[in-house]
């Protein structure tokens, strides 16, 4: 099918061969960044717990991520995306060498879009709950729990950063993959 | 390779010209479905309110979407996506006629991905809050408000459907746009 180099594969890519290779290398680098982001988020959220020195009838003395189902979803979503990104890395490296590979690139684009949606869903659902933990809601009579669980709240807020960074990276990657 | 029109545009599209036109028509139809979904979601959520025949010190006698900031974000996100889809419709129709248009398609793919992320963020954040309204959270001492505000809860749960449908449609569309 290929001649000296992939002869017979026409391309509508607006980029030259060299630029396309550059984009492929960028793709690998961005994948690494997204792996670090999602992994850090999943670990930071998953290992959070805080035990208070006191407890009352209403406030539990220990807080961890599994107390809130949304935060569990956040950990699961980040883990899945991280695992996918690790598995997709070899394919992405192949694209650096065979810069005109067409169908394998389509597969990557498709799953990348699904993973973008998954990490967005996890991050924004968790952000909604973290916001509630910080601010509470007077109308629904949900009290902010961050006065009690201050270090727990700091950790769960911080762990959102990696996930949102991965979201931005995956969105950019979508675009780079398309133009390459 | 090309006919008299679009001379000089090569294509790596795996589809024939006829199939590509079919996909473009499908794209227009899916855009209509997504418009209806997001519009219905925004309206259903935005017009929800329930006034209780009684009130106590803690539970407010009137519930509407703006009581919960996340639901406000849901309405805004759905409105933005709906407006974008309406504006993108003419461009999408142009693609049915000029089925090899390249750069305008890239623009659509790029903004579609951004809108997919936005509608996903809105829908999943709202879903997290709606879940909390239904189930509450004993650990955080957040009580379910759906016992009181039953019709309010039904409406906000129902309004998620349109948004999630639009999400699925936009994700499919991403793929169709890429292979066309």
Automatic annotation (TrEMBL), chains A, B:
What is the predominant subcellular site recorded for this chain? membrane
**Compartments, record wording:** Cell membrane
User: What PANTHER family does UniProt report for this protein, alphabetically?
Assistant: CASP-LIKE PROTEIN, CASP-LIKE PROTEIN 1U1
Residues annotated as domain Casparian strip membrane protein:
21-169
One GO cellular component term: plasma membrane
Put simply, this protein is called CASP-like protein
In the record, the note on similarity to other proteins reads: Belongs to the Casparian strip membrane proteins (CASP) family.
One of its GO biological process terms is:
cell wall organization
Subunit architecture:
Homodimer and heterodimers.
User: Which parts of the chain span the membrane according to its record?
Assistant: 28-48, 68-94, 106-133, 156-177
Transcription recorded as keyword: no
Keyword check for Membrane: yes
What exactly does this protein do?
Answer: Regulates membrane-cell wall junctions and localized cell wall deposition. Required for establishment of the Casparian strip membrane domain (CSD) and the subsequent formation of Casparian strips, a cell wall modification of the root endodermis that determines an apoplastic barrier between the intraorganismal apoplasm and the extraorganismal apoplasm and prevents lateral diffusion.
What InterPro entries does the entry give?
Answer: CASP/CASPL, CASP_dom, CASPL
Q: How does it sit in the membrane?
A: Multi-pass membrane protein
Sorted keywords for this record are:
Cell membrane, Cell wall biogenesis/degradation, Membrane, Transmembrane, Transmembrane helix
Q: Which domain of life is it from?
A: Eukaryota
């Amino acid at each position: 099918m290929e001649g000296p180099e992939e002869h017979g594969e026409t391309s509508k890519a607006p980029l030259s061969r060299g630029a396309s290779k550059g984009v492929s290398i960028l793709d690998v680098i961005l994948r690494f960044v997204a792996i670090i982001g999602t992994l850090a988020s999943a670990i930071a959220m998953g290992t959070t717990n805080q035990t208070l020195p006191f407890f009352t009838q209403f406030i539990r003395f220990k807080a961890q991520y599994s107390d809130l189902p949304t935060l569990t979803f956040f950990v699961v979503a980040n883990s899945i995306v991280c695992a996918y990104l690790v598995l997709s890395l070899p394919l992405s490296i192949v694209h650096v060498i065979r810069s005109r590979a067409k169908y394998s690139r389509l597969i990557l684009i498709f799953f990348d879009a699904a993973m973008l949606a998954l990490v967005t869903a996890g991050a924004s659902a968790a952000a909604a709950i973290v916001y509630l933990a910080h601010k509470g809601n007077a109308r629904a009579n949900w009290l902010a729990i961050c006065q009690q669980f201050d270090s727990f709240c700091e950790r769960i807020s911080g762990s959102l950063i990696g996930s949102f960074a991965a979201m931005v990276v995956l969105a950019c990657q979508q675009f780079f993959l398309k133009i390459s």
